[in-house]
Amino acid sequence: MPQYDKVVVTDVDVVFLGDIAKEFIEFDINEEYYLAGAKSGLSRLDSWIDKFSSRYDKEFSIDERKLLNFAGGYYIFNCKKIREDKLENKFVDFALKNCERIIQPEQDTINICCGDKKKALSPRALVCTYLYDMYKSEVDYTKGSGYDADTIKDALNNPIQVHYATTKKPWLEVCPKQELWFSYLAKTPFFEEYMHNLMPENRKILFKFTLFGRIFNFTKEHAK
Questions:
Q1: Run of H or E residues at 138
Q2: Cα 181–185–190 angle (5° rounding)?
Q3: For position 194, what pLDDT does the model report?
Q4: How confident is the model at residue 54 (pLDDT cuts 50, 70, 90)?
Q5: What's the DSSP call for residue 50?
Q6: What is the Cα–Cα distance from 49 to 75, expressed in whole angstroms?
Q7: Backbone angles phi, psi at 122, to 5 degrees
């Protein structure tokens, strides 16, 4: 995008709950950072993320694994510096040469090619929905893989971006923070189209989160 010096890059399976303007404006393109993003580390140490991350031990060197420290889903890119250092060519070259071993293609490529020229945003910047299933008790909050309990709580309670990062998507099945996605969908012109095209077997998903559905379930439960 030669007409821009910096851009926001985001996944599409997200909802934004906070203002991203301040961080975008304050990101200085004259610094040495290729991007700003959210560092990994909100997940619990004994969670399934540990097992998933162990796959990297086999495919990546120790030095490479140290660079895989930023989550995908939300970046502020320094287009000016990316162009100056011809980083786009490095992205493509790395991806082509390592396509058989990279596990999260764009995230692995960006992390390694950008090296240590990555600026950390607040942990609140990107909060994956699976995190809400990891922290159920006070003890859980003491097991964060990169942040203390207060920081994790603040991120989960006050996220800027909520990312539906697994295969569980709110438009397909019941998942954490699904009501947020529907609340935003209902404010768009696409809500009617979505309802019209919703497969019969999936209508129960939406029904669960409507006022009528909640009233129905409440009366059904108390009628027993």
A1: helix 138-141
A2: 145
A3: 82
A4: confident
A5: H
A6: 21
A7: -60, 145
